[in-house]
């Protein structure tokens, strides 16, 4: 244990919050390996089983802003505990339903609970800690491990029945709810009240808008990969669980090992641009691949790229948005999850009417739009984050901005 960790007076509450984050992320990923089994058991079509992702993400996106605003009235602990409790109820109920519509509705309720959790978790960690760096790394570690372990749980338990992973997730979230009640605490300084206009104020900043445009295309693609690839691979539940565990390990590797280190060398903006470019190549690989082995290798590489993006996008949002962390993350998460929500269902519909590989080509086009936006606006994002893009010497606008006295003083 480092000296910084030993000096934290709220260490128990910090670890409890981080462990709850692990359970929450594992609950997202646990569904991946059991999607095909759910479809065959309930007689659902491809687009209908993709509703399990879309309902979850859509409600989560819509719930982010009111969840952020409610922290000013009720405090972090009550909102977070309520969110964890809602997830526990939704997961346990999902293990007992008999129709795809009911299951999708409960996944929506699950998304509402996670919105309440994710709107508060990081802010609570930073507010409780004396040194924010280590708690941010702790949170990212739990997120990475959740994406790695969740599919493994889903695959192994899904071999018994698709209902068992939901039940297991519900039990874990009950434990998390008990831990939240008994171990969490609000910081000494209560968060201030937020108005709706405060949350949307970040959209007045050009750099934040540019980042949101790139993030919208990226997150759409993220959930094409996470939500549709399990169907496209045509694997049984245990092999599918192992494949997405490998993808989750790649994601964790990108978050914990590569993402920040690369950003410290070439800048966060350039790092995200490079990762999105390689990810586009991975999507082309998935679209063209005729080998399951090749598709799995490409999927793991895509996971590393996604981890690199995830490690830097939130940092860039905080750098380009308003100083108030809650309002900035609320606005950013609304975009991040809102544009991700249609991706699974669109993938299912395109696969049914065009072909199994077509959703990956849709993802290539969408992310291609993101790359164009990035090429046109990267200098704006870099300037707001105190960085320079690699190609700024060829961009007259960026070069002019970098030579202004304000920019020079900022670098000093």
Under the CATH scheme, the architecture of the largest domain is: Up-down Bundle
In the CATH scheme, the class of the largest domain would be: Mainly Alpha
CATH topology of the largest domain, what is it called?
Growth Hormone, Chain: A
Please mark out the parts with pLDDT under 50 across 5 or more consecutive residues, or reply none.
396-412
* N-to-C series of helices and strands: HHHHHHHHHHHHHHHHHHH
Give a quick precis of the structure.
The chain has 19 helices and no strands. It has helices at 3-6, 11-29, 35-42, 46-74, 76-94, 100-118, 121-128, 132-158, 163-183, 196-200, 206-232, 237-266, 268-288, 292-320, 325-340, 342-353, 358-384, 396-402, 405-411. It is globular.
List keywords for this structure.
disordered C terminus, 412 residues, Growth Hormone, Chain: A, globular, 2 domains
Ordered list of secondary-structure elements with their pairings:
Layout: H1 3-6, H2 11-29, H3 35-42, H4 46-74, H5 76-94, H6 100-118, H7 121-128, H8 132-158, H9 163-183, H10 196-200, H11 206-232, H12 237-266, H13 268-288, H14 292-320, H15 325-340, H16 342-353, H17 358-384, H18 396-402, H19 405-411
Give a structural overview.
The chain is an all-alpha fold. The chain folds into two domains: 7-185, Growth Hormone, Chain: A (Up-down Bundle), CATH 1.20.1250; 195-412, Growth Hormone, Chain: A, CATH 1.20.1250.20. 81% of the residues lie in helices and 0% in strands. It has 19 helices and no strands. The chain has helices at 3-6, 11-29, 35-42, 46-74, 76-94, 100-118, 121-128, 132-158, 163-183, 196-200, 206-232, 237-266, 268-288, 292-320, 325-340, 342-353, 358-384, 396-402, 405-411. Helix 8 runs antiparallel to helix 9 (163-183), helix 8 packs antiparallel against helix 12 (237-266) and helix 12 (237-266) packs across helix 14 (292-320). The chain is globular. The two termini are 35 Å apart. The model is unreliable at 396-412 (pLDDT under 50).
